[in-house]
Amino acid sequence: MLIQDLVSQIDTKDTPIFFHNEPIAGSDYCYARTTTASELAELRGKKDANYREDELGVHLVNLELQDVYNNYLKKNPVAVSKLCALLTEQCAVPTDKIILAYVLFTVLHEIGHWQHLVRSGLTRTEYWKEYEAQRDDLWMEFQFMYHFCRNKQEQQYILDLYDGMYRNLPSERFADDFAKNELPQYLDLMP
């Protein structure tokens, strides 16, 4: 099943959704854009990628679910393992639906980011300052620490540490809670 087929079966809550045939350099397979490049340039004082007002929303690479899962597994096996354990325990996901549930959770999580922006009542700039800047700072800190890892054990430790800190950011908690609340209603409907 392709991500676009999966999304066609869920309520996106009027979130703008964009599908891409190939991954975009430097981006995850599922991500939300809540500010334009010019807004980010002003906020950060530097030039960013060229995306505009009409490109704000959730961006998804339209691959097979297994391929999306495998790519996330390669990128951060610690985070994938933790999330799959959470889905199995808290959402009662059967083992045979774990890949579907993982990718669906990821999509719903990104929709949750958009819903968090909408429900916050903040402007995009205010939202970035309140929520997104923390994530950007944490990402830069992670990259610095990961760069100096001397072996796989240290890399795993840093991945685990980063995942825990990342998941505790307020915007990430909101997006996770949104996805956890939405996920169960779709699991029974899908093969």
What's a concise summary of this model?
This protein has 191 residues and is mainly α. It has helices spanning 3-7, 37-44, 65-75, 77-90, 98-120, 124-147, 152-167, 170-187; strands spanning 17-20, 30-33, 57-61.
Describe this structure in words.
The structure is a single chain. This protein has 191 residues and is mainly alpha-helical. Helices cover 62% and strands 7% of the residues. It contains eight helices and three strands; from the N terminus they run H-E-E-H-E-H-H-H-H-H-H. It has a three-stranded mixed beta sheet with strand order 1-3-2, covered by helices on one side. The longest helix is centred in the last third of the chain and has 24 residues, at 124-147. The termini are close together.
